[in-house]
């Protein structure tokens, strides 16, 4: 199982440097049943004290969402799942029926296409992503709900943080997508830190050679050091 072996070496090289792993299920689903076997083996291999966040972006009518939730929270037993809220409350709330699981709702994403819809005005000078975040925050507590806020749009963090001061943000886009960790932290930190900063390609593909695991560790170590410096300056550690 070369996919699992790659993941295993990445985990072995980085597990003391991170608080979470975020496997993107599309890369496993594309390989059919064998790919999902690799996903399950990867989930099982990750140490118990590290959060497992399945990046699957699920969301559908209630009964379907309930089965998606059962699949990821019971069968695969991940700790958190990304959820697309476009269909509204009945597509999100089934995921919130599970205790001790995180529902990570798409708020303001890091891709270029986010400007197609997420910044559209919806009245009272609010953008659509403001309305989505404000509404979805009412579905559950800050101990259940997290929001995806992309690092490539740091100028919006201050406004979003004012809407949801207590919630954690999952922040993709640092690294290969060019997002600035410093800019994100300037407006996104709260007194509990409040940020789960993600770097994927910048770490796992730090080298295309046989030294990929060592290169991944070096890249993760560099990012962790930058995070530590920022948290020290903010008086949070």
How would you sum up this structure, described in words?
This protein is an alpha/beta fold. It has one domain (2-230): TIM Barrel. It has ten helices and seven strands. The protein has a seven-stranded parallel beta sheet, with helices on one face. Helix 1 (2-14) runs parallel beside helix 3, helix 1 (2-14) packs parallel to helix 10 and helix 7 packs parallel to helix 8. The longest helix is centred in the C-terminal third of the chain and has 22 residues, at 212-233.
Key features of this structure:
globular; 7 strands; alpha/beta; about 15% strand; seven-stranded parallel sheet; about 240 residues; single chain; 10 helices; TIM Barrel
In brief, what are we looking at here?
With 237 residues, this protein is of the alpha/beta class.
Topology:
Elements: H1 2-14, E1 20-21, H2 26-29, H3 33-45, E2 51-58, H4 62-75, E3 80-83, H5 89-92, E4 102-108, H6 128-137, E5 145-149, H7 157-163, E6 168-171, H8 181-188, E7 195-197, H9 201-204, H10 212-233
Parallel strand pairs: 1-2, 2-3, 3-4, 4-5, 5-6, 6-7
Helix pairs in contact: 1-3, 1-10, 7-8
């Amino acid at each position: 199982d070369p996919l699992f072996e790659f993941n295993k070496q990445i985990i072995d090289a980085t597990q003391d440097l991170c608080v979470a792993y975020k496997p993107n299920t599309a890369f496993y689903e594309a390989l059919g049943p064998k790919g999902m076997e690799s996903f399950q083996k990867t989930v099982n291999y990750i140490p118990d004290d590290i959060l497992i966040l399945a990046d699957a972006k699920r969301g559908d009518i209630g009964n379907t969402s309930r089965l998606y939730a059962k699949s990821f929270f019971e069968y695969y037993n991940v700790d958190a799942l990304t959820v697309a809220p476009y269909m509204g409350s009945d597509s999100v709330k089934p995921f919130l029926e599970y205790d001790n699981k995180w529902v990570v709702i798409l708020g303001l994403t890091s891709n270029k296409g986010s400007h197609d819809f997420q910044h559209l005005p919806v009245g009272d000078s609010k953008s659509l992503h403001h309305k989505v975040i404000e509404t979805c925050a009412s579905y559950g507590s800050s101990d259940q709900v997290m929001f995806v806020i992309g690092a490539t749009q740091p100028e919006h963090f201050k406004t979003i943080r004012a809407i949801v001061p207590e919630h954690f943000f999952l922040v993709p886009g640092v690294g290969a997508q060019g997002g600035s960790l410093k800019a994100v932290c300037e407006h996104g930190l709260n007194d509990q830190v409040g940020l789960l900063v993600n770097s994927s390609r910048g770490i796992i593909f730090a080298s295309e050679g046989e030294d990929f695991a060592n290169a991944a560790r070096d890249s993760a170590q560099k990012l962790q050091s930058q995070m530590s410096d920022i948290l020290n300056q903010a008086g949070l550690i």
